[in-house]
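Re: weekly structure request thread

Next one in the queue (843 aa):
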Amino acid sequence: MADVPRFADLFSELVGAEPYEWQERAAQQWGGGEAPDEISVPTGMGKTLLMVVWLFALLRDLEKHRQTGAKRQVPLRYHHVAPRRVVVDDSATTAMRIGDALESPKTPALSAAREILVEVFGTPAPGDRVLEVVVLRGGMEDRPENTRQPARPVVIVGTVQLVGSRLLGRPYGVAPARRPIEMALTCTDSVLVIDEAHLVRQFVETARTLARWVRAEDLLSGSIPPLRVIGMTATPRQSETYFDRAAEERRRPAVAERLARRRATPVSIVEVTTTTADGGMAHVVKSHDFAPKASTLVFSNTRDGAIKVSKALATRRDLPTDTSLLTLVGGMPDRVTAPLVEGELSALRPGRSASPAATLIVSATQTLEAGADLDAQHGVVPVASGSALRQRIGRVNRLGLHEEASITIVVSPDATRENVYGESAARLSRALVHHRPPTLGDLDDLLDSAEAQAWEVESTQLAVLPRFVFDAYQRTGGSPHDPPVGRWLVQPEDPLAEISIVFRDSVNDIENDAALQGHLSRCRPQGGELWSIPLPQARQLVRGVDRWALFHSADPEAAPLICPEADSLRAGDIAVLPSASHRLPLPRWGEDLVGVRDVAPFVLMKGEKLTDDHVGSLVTPLLDELGRETGWVELVPVRERDEHCPSAPYPLAQHHDDVAQRVREICSVLGVPLAMTEDLVTAARLHDEGKTHPGLQAALCHVVDGDGILNYRPSDQPIGKSALPRRLWRRVNSLAGVPAALRHEAVSASLYDERLAKGAVAPTDARLVRHLILTHHGGFRGFGPVLQPDEVSSTAYQDPERAEWVERPAEFRELLERYGPCTIALTEALLRLADWDASRRVT
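Done, posted below.
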């Protein structure tokens, strides 16, 4: 194995610049085996590049493991968790650049790093990468999916909601069957780096609580590193910092010059007589002198405030004729924001010392506040809390490159509270009027002072996650009585507590409630059409419509509720509203975003408008017709990943061998003890044995011939995977007379019990092997589905009259107590991901 490159060489060849002194110090600390707990570094000083520090520490840890046999300490999965989507996208771009550099190394340090990773983790399979990058956030066209490679390094960049819900075993937007996998991949062999941690104190509290519990677990006899949590912020509390300004300036004199230029940015204080500074923003922008051929960020504390600012700016006739006005609020879908980010907003990317070609004014909420990698020339902001104000001014002259720059702070001296930020912002408002800092440096000094920190008013006391609640989340199917996970991620009054809004023409056009409920159950909301808005505003919005539907995050697979009470909305829920309801001056707000030409999960359209071209482009014919009186039909396009299937039926024995081999490979890389590895291999060799059930074999032997006709072709050996696309599975099961509730994993468990009784298998932990067989499709974490009396002859685990069914929850609880919930979820994930990977490799 190649020698680990020097950190400075690895960093400079990945980033194109020398590391800061704090990054070198972090690399020495983490590379020596002790990860930092907190990283407090000023804006623009490379916090996101802590992922390079992690990569270096991982390489050092792998070298130590090779030389001494010591257990791994540095996790394989690096989670960068951010409070805003735009920060997620910026961080993901950085991670992709690092991954691309390792994929095609052009320098000695990068070549050595790739060689080490390939030596330890193997050459990536086609379509995989040496360093995978995963994005988990709302508003994406496809449903966000975690890594499927548990034994490879990966950078996972996501929001608090999507990463945090996975941490607790109740991931938003994920089918219940995948919950244990998502929890395992987040809670074990992972480090959570929480960006702008001071803004998400509730999530930090919950993550640290989980980390303490995970450290107490077995974690496969200690072979898997436990969960680590690192808080990262540009707003240190009580002057605690990881950053040594004097050391940085000595190391890189250019840094001193840049910081000095930024500190010299002029600041002006504008007083308004409105009850809040946020309420006066629309009045201020009507007369503000916007510089031509320059970029200006105008912040508002609320969504309504940003919309009012945009309306006020739209009425001005004295702005330069080339002015481009953008309105950006949190939670806009990708298909709305992508053209803006790739177009006008690209002028705000850091490093552009020149002015933009046109005048750009962006009216935004907190969506551009925390950690966004933007660099405007000018900023107009209402007073907020000290930490929020620091974040906003951090988007102006961020790198100190703009010679013409300014910051205008709007205050209301008589206000007793400010929107969102309460008393702390009101106190800061009065202090700004009193001190009137003339430059950004003076403002920073004021915000750093003990006086300013005393103005900060702590929000509601943080909720402490009870252990019994986390234990209840281990039931895959969940319960309607389980507390929503959102309470442990954000505080109730936190603006980050959001729900998603979807606009659909069908809500008004399909008048029958049952038909609408059935349609929405089949054609569920997808990421590309989701608008996320704060919970209080969402409740107010749905109160203003006559008809709407609700998908509860606690049970995402359940049918939606039609016209429930507005107060039943909880964080993470999805509300479906009729199109054009409560229009706002936002791009495409209120529009039904599902269209024929988009890569959509379905198309709903009037039957008389349906053409052969539409059907051909969507692959599948008519799925359903919602009554002749409506004229609406549903079409479902086939996704490529759902079409993947073997070219010929795949023998069961071969599948078992392939999965067992993949399990061995994964366990070898992870250093799983031999006894546990053999139990996992035993489960791999028996997990699909239930497919020998006559009805299941009859279904698996169906094929589609060259004319597209479904035929039955018996096989002389048991089949493990059919040669049919997923969309036909339900149909062939029905043709073969397979009971709808029959689970082949339950049949497999019964056959395993027979082998165990005969002494044909001798696992170290027989209960664990049985559990892995039963749960390899995500079910049986508790009771299994019940079969009718005339259907239960092949399995005892679906017969409520048998002890196996009755005792199953108790056995599951015993395993949780022995190994711990995260360790049990990890064993399930290793088998299931090996199963998926082996199936994927079949051609």
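Confidence is low (pLDDT under 50) at residues 596-603, 614-628. The radius of gyration is 29 Å.
Next request, please.
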